[in-house]
């Protein structure tokens, strides 16, 4: 099995992140032009995600491992928590467009991109979600996209043909309350409040009704967490995460995908 360290090594690829609000674009790091090949301005990180064979191999491998760790049938209330960007949706087109004109991340251009609803799927995720749904499972998509953009996230996911509906999937973006909660008891990172709300039956899904008849208005047990950022795991920060302590859970309840383009590192 591929070690966590290998994945961490990959995530270090040249890109320097601005670590902005859940997604950050890289500073453009020109690749070394090859003799006879037209030079370009895309970073190695974007080229890796859009053109390498290694990226789809790794992502699909992680998702295959996650499928192998799923229960044969989910118990009522069991849920997989997934991040969205570079976990379910691949935003390398956005990164490529920005870099190709010499620009980086901005909140306005990011919002415009999300509203286009054109992100594609991370390799392997469709098979994983198919298996979750087949096994009577539920998915909570806890994303640091702004909550006001949730309808576009939902539309984008449906447009990609995923077998999602309002009973089996909850989309919940970030609000100022998520950031303000950090530092309160049990709230280590800005997704912890939503994780707690999910376990208490109080999650405010944007794509479903929030009345008592909702399948989400009951307590849930988080059986798996999947993301491209260590903070997609509850109770840790980039700075505090202890890889050695996390490793026994990686491959069974924690799965981390490669994302060379940006992060909180
Ligand atoms: Mg992400």
Automatic annotation (TrEMBL):
Keywords of this entry: Signal
InterPro entries attached to this UniProt entry: Acid_phosphat_B-like (IPR005519), HAD-like_sf (IPR036412), HAD_sf (IPR023214)
Gene3D superfamilies in alphabetical order: HAD superfamily/HAD-like (3.40.50.1000)
Entries under PROSITE patterns matching the protein: PROKAR_LIPOPROTEIN
NADP in keyword set: no
Pfam families: Acid_phosphat_B
PANTHER family, sorted: ACID PHOSPHATASE-LIKE PROTEIN
Protein name (Swiss-Prot/TrEMBL): Acid phosphatase
């Amino acid at each position: 099995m591929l070690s966590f360290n290998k994945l961490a090594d990959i995530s270090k690829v040249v890109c320097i992140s601005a670590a902005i609000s859940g997604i950050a674009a890289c500073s453009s790091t020109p690749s070394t032009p090859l003799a006879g090949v037209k030079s370009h301005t895309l970073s190695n990180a974007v080229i890796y995600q859009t053109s390498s064979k290694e990226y789809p191999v790794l992502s699909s491998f992680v998702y295959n491992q996650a499928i192998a760790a799923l229960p044969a049938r989910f118990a009522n209330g069991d849920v997989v928590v997934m991040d969205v960007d570079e976990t379910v949706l691949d935003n390398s087109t956005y990164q490529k467009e920005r870099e190709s004109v010499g620009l980086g991340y901005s909140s306005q251009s990011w919002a415009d991109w999300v509203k286009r609803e054109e992100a594609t799927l991370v390799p392997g995720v469709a098979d994983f979600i198919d298996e979750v749904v087949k096994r009577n499972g539920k998915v909570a998509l806890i994303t640091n996209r702004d909550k006001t953009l949730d309808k576009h996230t939902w539309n984008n996911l449906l447009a990609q043909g995923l077998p999602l509906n309002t009973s089996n999937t909850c989309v919940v973006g970030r609000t100022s309350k998520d950031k303000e909660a950090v530092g309160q008891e049990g709230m280590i990172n800005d997704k912890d409040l939503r994780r707690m709300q999910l376990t208490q039956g109080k999650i405010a899904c944007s794509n479903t009704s929030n009345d008592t008849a909702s399948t989400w208005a009951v307590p849930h047990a988080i059986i798996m967490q999947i993301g491209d950022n260590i903070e997609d795991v509850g109770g840790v920060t980039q700075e505090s995460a202890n890889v050695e302590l996390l490793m026994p859970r990686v491959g069974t309840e924690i799965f981390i995908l490669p994302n060379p383009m940006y992060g909180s590192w």
